[in-house]
Design brief:
The complex is a heterodimer of chains A (109) and B (115).
Chain A lengths: L2 E5 L2 E5 L4 E8 L3 E9 L6 E6 L5 E4 L2 E5 L3 E6 L8 E9 L5 E2 L3 E6 L1
Parallel strand pairs in A: 2-11
Antiparallel strand pairs in A: 1-3, 3-8, 4-5, 4-9, 6-7, 7-8, 9-10, 9-11
Chain B lengths: L3 E4 L2 E4 L4 E8 L5 E7 L6 E7 L2 E5 L6 E7 L2 E7 L7 E8 L10 E2 L3 E5 L1
Parallel strand pairs in B: 2-11
Antiparallel strand pairs in B: 1-3, 3-8, 4-5, 4-9, 5-6, 7-8, 9-10, 9-11
The chains are: A mainly beta (109), B mainly beta (115).
Chain lengths: 109, 115
């Protein structure tokens, strides 16, 4: 059975304090790993897709990396507007998404 | 146009009411989804439509009834709901069922409160 876990469950950072979020997964035949950002009461907003181990994607202060068992979302010098829940999802070939429980990030000014 | 539009944004309904949630996309996507999300939990898949046909029903109670009138529209009809059905209901779409470079494109959701 495909499984996704995320850590930490919640993270509080000071503005400018860099850190990483973890997504660990077990899936047979990974088609893609997806990172989404979700603000309270809103739908998830697409950030990145990673397809194979070693792949990296960057967008502004965010950088996502992928290994065979986990993905990291690195946040460099975060700002308060980066506060959100970050969801990781994996998709096996021919299957629907499996979401992780998310990491709630708070960036304090 | 790269949006999934959901209406209404907020809905309060009694347990004897009948209401509908609506979802619309104009990206040419052929798969559409309904998800339910409780507070501090990830989205849970309810239904999948592929080429306007229901392909997955994740054992959802019959008080939730999906409908796909055409390739751009998805409805969720609600009847005799319970207070525990209160949640954020998300619609999503993708190019094909279970594929798409960006995975799924989500709408902003309908916040449903059952009283």
């Amino acid at each position: 059975e495909d499984q996704v876990t995320q850590s930490p469950e919640a993270l509080r950072l000071q503005e400018g304090e860099s850190s990483s979020l973890n997504c660990s997964y077990t899936v047979s035949g990974l088609r893609g790993l997806f990172w989404y950002r979700q603000d309270p009461g809103k739908g998830p907003e697409f950030l990145f897709t990673l397809y194979s181990a070693g792949e990296e994607k960057e967008k502004e202060r965010l950088k996502a990396t992928l290994t065979k068992k986990e993905s990291f979302l690195h946040i460099t010098a975060p700002k308060p507007e980066d506060s959100a829940t970050y969801l990781c999802a994996v998709q096996a070939y021919g299957q629907n998404f499996v979401f992780g429980p998310g990491t709630r990030l708070s960036v304090l000014p | 146009d790269t949006e999934v539009t959901q209406t209404p944004k907020h809905l309060v309904m009694g347990m004897t009411n009948k209401k509908s949630l609506k979802c619309e996309q104009h990206m040419g996507h052929r798969a559409m989804y309904w998800y339910k999300q409780k507070a501090k939990k990830p989205p849970e898949l309810m239904f999948v439509y592929s080429y306007e046909k229901l392909s997955i029903n994740e054992s959802v109670p019959s008080r939730f009834s999906p409908e796909c009138p055409n390739s751009s529209l998805l409805n969720l009809h609600l009847h005799a709901l319970q207070p525990e059905d209160s949640a954020l209901y998300l619609c999503a779409s993708s190019q094909e069922a279970r594929t798409g470079v960006k995975g799924y494109t989500f709408g902003s959701g309908t916040r449903l409160t059952v009283v």
